[in-house]
Amino acid sequence: MIVTDPWLRSNPKTPAGYKDLSKLGKVDLILVTHAHFDHIADAPDLALMNKARVYAPGDLNMTLNTLGVLPPELTPRMNKSGTVVPFPDVPGLKITAVRAEHSSLYVWKNPATNKNESHYGGEPIGFIIELENGQKIYHMGDTGLFSDLQFIGSYYKPDVLLIPIGGNFTMDPKDAAYATREWIKPRVAIPMHYGTNPLNQGTPQQYQQALGNTATRVVPLQPGETFRF
Prior knowledge:
Layout: E1 2-4, E2 29-31, H1 37-40, H2 43-50, E3 53-55, H3 58-66, E4 83-84, E5 94-99, E6 105-110, E7 115-120, E8 125-130, E9 136-139, H4 148-156, E10 160-164, H5 173-184, E11 188-192, H6 204-211, E12 217-218
Parallel strand pairs: 1-2, 2-3, 9-10, 10-11, 11-12
Antiparallel strand pairs: 4-5, 5-8, 6-7, 8-9
Helix pairs in contact: 4-5, 5-6
């Protein structure tokens, strides 16, 4: 199982059955797009529970290693445009880091002082996840709108897009619809990063309306739901 940006235990939208991290089952790999709490909160504990590596911005992993949050063997480093094959016995599975337009700051509670400290979280990224059957998932992280999304769409040609639509911190539904329709053009788009606080006001309905009549199928999943493609 690959887990991306895990924020479960304190997330107000997490179903009760997933508040216990052990109920997820075996986690094989964790992908983190940036250091903000709502994306990395449960990554260290999941990694330690499962002995699973965390792929994240290289400098964020160095921060996690330096602070003693995670050991070196669970914090491999990579950077934008880097591609890794995380499991030698699954050569078709590839993870590529791509640019994202956002920020990244890691807030860590120092056990010696019991006070929060702000640490460098590296530059944010998105992930192209290429599966064994050749299909590609593009997890955009918390990106805003930027023109290199056109390059990412044309070069990597993702089949499934996980796209933020909430606004304020990320693209809003109008921006997300433009990026989907004009630049990325996936078969399936799954909206994310909305509805968890009053500032993430974008909705899947607004995104679908702004997208208009395209070949992209919008799948507005609710927490706990699954989708096969």
